[in-house]
Amino acid sequence: MTRTLIRYRTKPDMADRNAELIAAVFEELKAVQPEGVRYLSLRLDDTFVHFVEAETDSGSALPGLAAFKAFQSGIRERCIEPPQPGGATIVGNYRMLAAAGYIAHRDGTALGHQLTHEFAAHP
Length: 123
Fold this sequence. Notes:
This protein has three helices and six strands; from the N terminus they run E-H-E-E-H-H-E-E-E. By secondary structure, it is α+β, with helices and mostly antiparallel strands. The chain has one domain (2-93): Alpha-Beta Plaits, CATH 3.30.70.100. The protein starts with a strand and ends in a 10-residue tail after the last strand.
């Protein structure tokens, strides 16, 4: 399993456009529902953080998505600080990331198998 955290800062006037491109990636993920990938994106004003988890070391399905290709196109031109990828280890997790892709009720019973990004409000 590979976990990658990517952080970058966009130009202030490009932050909304960047967020729109990211939203399109999540829409395609929701439609295609690829196995073996979990993806979370956060926006902090003009700074973006992406957390990607791939079940195989050969990578995730993200680069093959048309919306992801559109997102990556021009990313350096949208940024003040370029994307800085790095490995990530989860030190703690309290109800933020669903274990093994399962969403649970408060009593611990499973709702069913879903992609992790679906457990929270769509960014």
